[in-house]
Amino acid sequence: MEYHPGLHLLTTLYSQRKDLLHVSGQWKTFIQSQIAIHGLTEVGNCVHDFPDGGYTAVHCLTESHISIHTWPEYGLCTCDVYLSNFRKNNDVITTAIMEQIKLFFEITHEEMHSLRR
Amino acid sequence: MEYHPGLHLLTTLYSQRKDLLHVSGQWKTFIQSQIAIHGLTEVGNCVHDFPDGGYTAVHCLTESHISIHTWPEYGLCTCDVYLSNFRKNNDVITTAIMEQIKLFFEITHEEMHSLRR
User: Fold this and answer.
1) End-to-end Cα, chain A, rounded Å
2) B1 in a structural domain
3) B32 belongs to a structural domain
């Protein structure tokens, strides 16, 4: 069998939408909608809201995972979208979801890393 | 407040221990022991075993996350250890846990990426 590395995008996103960084409710609705739109399969998730604000959420997919960690006190989050290419090439979807995440947070600037793995 | 980027290690690990790549049981025991030993706090996890073998597991931590996706048919897994440094510097722990993961799988070779974020 041949090995087809996937695409892993890792960003730090800066946003003034403190409401979206503070609690996970809108994120969860948004990202699960993205997962459905792109025909991905969520096999589980863990979402944890911290008592003083900020949240950690990871969505496990048959294709790998999407994760976010927010720090509203710094006005930023770190976000990963990683889709493997074993069953089919998901590169276009990986990029599309990260673009939608940036729009969701109405980001002011970003740092992006892109890895093949 | 000052921003202290964390360390995110991303590996592809090759192993002949098909048993460890096939089902998640031993991984879960191992990694939760590592989380406890290093004083990290798991706030949730999702672990999914695929019907034909292989698993996806993500452990959400107050410090960020640890993830693994295994493909026993290729004899490999992709693994992330990402600990933020907001509360304290966790770089030593990040590196130590990745080393323990390599020992756990008795890896034959690896590809490693290291990111500050």
Assistant:
1) 16
2) no
3) yes
Alpha-carbon gap: A44 to the closest alpha carbon of chain B (Å): 6
pLDDT tens digits along A56-111: 999 999 999 999 999 999 999 999 999 999 878 999 999 999 999 999 999 999 99
Residues of chain A whose C-beta is under 8 A from some C-beta in B? 1, 3, 6, 8, 10, 12, 43-48, 50, 56-58, 60-62, 64-65, 67, 69, 71, 73-74, 76, 78, 80, 82, 84, 86, 111, 113, 115, 117
Residue A48 confidence (pLDDT): 96
Q: Per-residue pLDDT for B1 more than 60?
A: no
Query: What are the backbone dihedrals phi and psi of residue B52, each rounded to the nearest 5 degrees, phi first?
Result: -95, 10
Q: How far apart are CA B44 and CA A69, in angstroms?
A: 13
Per-residue DSSP letter, B92 = H
At residue A1, the pLDDT reads 56
Residue to mutate among A65, A76, A87, with most B CBs inside 10 A, is A65
Judged by CB atoms closer than 8 Å, whether chains meet at B56 and A60 is answered as yes
Instruction: Answer yes or no: is A69 within a domain.
Output: yes
Does A48 reside within a domain? yes
Cβ–Cβ gap B60/A44 under 8 Å: no
CATH of the domain at B42: 3.60.90.10
In which domain, by residue range, is A86 found?
A: 7-109
- Sequence-distant (6+) residues with CB within 8 A of B23 are B49, B53, B55
Contact list in B for residue A65 (CB cut-off 8 A) is: 56, 58, 67, 69
Domain count, chain B: 1
- A-B contacts at Cβ under 8 angstroms: 90
Contact call for residues A83 and A63 (beta carbons, < 8 A): yes
